[in-house]
Input
Amino acid sequence: MRIVYFCRTESSGVDKKIASQIVNLKQMGVQVSIVNITQDEHVQAEDRDIRYITLPGFSKSRFRLIAILTREYFINRSLWHVTGELDSDDILYVRFEYPFFSLLYYLRKKRKCKIVFEHESLEPQEKLINGNYLFPVFDFIFGGSIRWHCDGIVGVTDEITTYEVKRSGDSKKPHLTLGNGISVESVPIKTSFSFIDSELHLLCVANVMKWHGLDRLIQGMIEYKGTTKINLHIVGGGSEIPAIQQMVKKLSATNQVFFYGPLYGKDLDEMFNRCDIAVGSLGIHRIGLHEATTLKAREYCSRGIPFIYGIPDMDFPSDFPYVLQIPADESSIDMANVIRYAKTVYADLNFSMKMREYAKQSLDWSVKMVKFKHFLESLVYTIQVKDL
Output
């Protein structure tokens, strides 16, 4: 079996998740490569297993609809050319593309390889939240048929997988729910445990969007009347940063909320050691989800820093002692509860090692890729048997 990942990025960089998956699949003896659609005109492949296809300049057209249609036709035609290079025991693995009619046209054509779509969200709802109104329209028209003609579906939560299989119109569509993972050894473990009652340091590392729900956290900080001084450290950029900065200024919280922009390497490691509790996504419900498996939660666990979170995660049991689940609504965060949680966790100074060990056993890509490999192998074998 050979697997080709078909993905698109804004630059030449390959998604860290895909890179980690590929490393682990190769270690299991699977032949795997990447086809990356990129806007970087000067990118050159340094890895023989990565092929770059550059989007032509029409993607910068002034006429947005024409630009989208032309871009998607080019991408889908490239996808089809890749399928022509693959055989009956090969998999083209695609992070769900734009539900454009040319994708449906190519999926309906005869091909040897299997095409599997990965879904990381309920796409129409997420696009609407982001102000993309064309995607839901195209998905309404073509999305069901596109899902029908693919050979398998992978969702990162049961909620997403169930939705996508239902959209396909085929209840027997081969599918797998596989939560996100992490290469645990790629991040260092937290080594400082200096939490004291008089001061609590919260850390959010994210490309901040509305669904991170930091407004709920900041409102809770303002409403808190206890004696512990609460500080929030925000590391990263994101479209929601200006709104959060404006909120902080309006609420006169500039002495409690600090913005650092992106940090890397030792600077980021020092920030994790400096802080007591990490902040996961507190507003996932805003994009219509009731479950999530965010990459950042896996990093927090691997680093050994307890964190707060907005909705259930399939990889963390409800009684997992190092995650505090916050109500999935628009209420402000109860900071007194967060402080009590911090005191409970820090009563055991071995918590960081215990979180790290859990991450190795349950969250590492080396564990998750075994299940993934078995699913794709069974998909290839099952379809070949049906064709006999």
